[in-house]
Amino acid sequence: MQKKNPEFKANNQCARDMFNVAVGIVRQLSIMAAPLILVSKNRTPFSVLIGLFILSSCILKRNCFNRLDAD
User: Fold this and answer.
1) Count of alpha carbons within 13 Å of 55, Cβ hemisphere only?
2) Residues whose CB falls within 8 Å of the CB of residue 8, separated by 6 or more in sequence, listed in order
3) What is the largest CA-CA distance in the chain?
4) How many CA atoms lie within 13 A of 54 on its CB side?
5) Three-class DSSP labels, the chain
6) How far apart, in whole angstroms, are the C-alpha atoms of residue 28 and residue 12?
7) Fewest CB atoms less than 10 Å from the CB: which of 20, 34, 38, 58?
């Protein structure tokens, strides 16, 4: 591949990328399940899901979005 394109670089951050995918899956599931829990009027699970959404958003911002320009 490098013979055809000398600027091609291998992905050295595969573990970080896989972690970001896992966090993104948790984030997506929490935001999709929140309205269902809200309709059933369970406040504690809803609060947990919103907390997971906020925590995963902060992790993705720090670990993925802030590093887009650097990579």
Assistant:
1) 10
2) 1, 2
3) 60
4) 6
5) CCCCCCCCCCCCCHHHHHHHHHHHHHHHHHHHHHHHHHHCCCHHHHHHHHHHHHHHHHHHHHHCHHHCCCC
6) 26
7) 58
Enumerate the domain spans of the chain: 15-65
The residue type at 27: R
Q: How far is CA 57 from CA 2, 4, 16, 39, in A?
A: 36, 38, 15, 23
Give the whole-angstrom CA distance, residue 61 versus residue 4.
35
